[in-house]
Amino acid sequence: MKSFLISVLGDDKSGLVDGLSKIIVANNGDWIESNMSSFEGKFAGILKVNVPSSNAAKLKKELTSSTLGLQIACEETKPVDELNNVMSYNIELIGQNHVGIINKLSHVLADELEANVEELKTEIIDASMSGEQLFKAQINLHLPNSLDENLIRDKLEQIADEMMVEIYSYES
Question: Which InterPro entries does its entry note (predicted)?
Fold first, then answer.
């Protein structure tokens, strides 16, 4: 059995997921996990597929040469060893939207806390009372087990104060 991580991007239209799933099933593939969205007329997604080794090359060829009108990248994945020396951590951020929020936050996370971002979801929402635009982010991370909880909180509070946003964090 082989596993593939597949990314797709193109103009949004009906039948894209159906077209992808037909190719996968035709190769005895198993659609394991996915995250797909439509943004401003574009369709983007990422999915994990398991397929018998004997069908792997054919699946990859059929996906990348499909007539679905999508840019498709298909990469074989390797099993990941269990993450023994890391803790899962979640951050929720909300504040007035301005340029550079993710840049500043990701710099602190990577350089000062050695974090690995596992998942990042962002959106702009309207504040309920004022109607101003707020930036909202949900971030799932892996942090080294050796980090002190107080250091994590101090760094996140510091960046929240600098950017004038609220950051809620918790170990998962």
Answer: ACT-like_dom_sf, GcvR, UPF0237/GcvR_regulator
Q: Residue 88 and residue 91: Cα distance in Å, rounded? A: 10
Q: Using CB atoms within 10 A of its CB, is residue 44 exposed (0-12), middle (13-18) or buried (19+)? A: middle
**What tokens appear for 42 in the block?**
């574009």
Distance CA 60, CA 63 (A): 5
23 and 50 Cβ atoms separated by less than 8 Å: no
SS3 at position 27? coil
Nearest to 49 by CA among 30, 63, 35: 30
Calpha distance 21→130 (Å, rounded):
44
pTM score over 0.85: no
Please state, in angstroms and rounded to a whole number, the distance separating the CA atoms of residues 69 and 8. 10
Q: What is the pLDDT of residues 7-32, one digit of tens each?
A: 999 999 999 999 999 999 999 999 99
Radius of gyration of the chain measured on its C-alpha atoms: 20
